[in-house]
Design brief:
Blueprint lengths: L1 H9 L3 H11 L7 E2 L8 E15 L2 E15 L5 E2 L2 H20 L7 E3 H5 L2
Parallel strand pairs: 3-5
Antiparallel strand pairs: 1-2, 2-3, 3-4
Helix pairs in contact: 1-2
The structure holds zinc ion.
Length: 119
């Protein structure tokens, strides 16, 4: 459905469609019980930096993504990576890079997570 809507409204640019869709959607990540069986704490969302590595024309690049939400326990500090979110982010970044290359735009070395979600 995303690709279809992107084709309809933004010339097939999925990244642009996602920006517009996300700009209209405001959700809240829920609090979870700690995944550590010996802890009664709660996992809350914190924001951290992640470095992504990619290759363009055999040249290595890296991009720091600021403010990526991850779960951290407020008691034992165990962190939980959201596999789903990481996979989506990876694909999203690939699309963003492809879009920038096609449009002769500079490749960023750092980007804010929020920036991916706003038009
Ligand atoms: Zn805990």
């Amino acid at each position: 459905m995303i690709r279809l809507k992107a084709a309809l409204y933004v010339g097939g640019n999925v990244a642009e469609f996602m920006r517009q869709a996300a700009a209209q959607y405001r959700g809240q990540m829920k609090t979870l019980d700690c995944i550590n069986p010996n802890c009664d704490g709660l996992m809350q969302v914190i924001y951290t930096d992640e470095t992504h590595f990619f290759k363009v024309a055999d040249k290595d690049h890296e991009m720091v993504l600021h403010g990526v939400p991850v779960y951290e326990c407020n008691c034992c500090r165990t962190r939980m990576a959201d596999v789903n979110l990481s996979a989506e982010l990876e694909g999203f970044i690939d699309e963003e890079i492809e879009f920038r290359l096609k449009n002769y735009m500079e490749l960023p070395t750092e980007i804010d997570f929020d920036q991916l979600l706003t038009p």
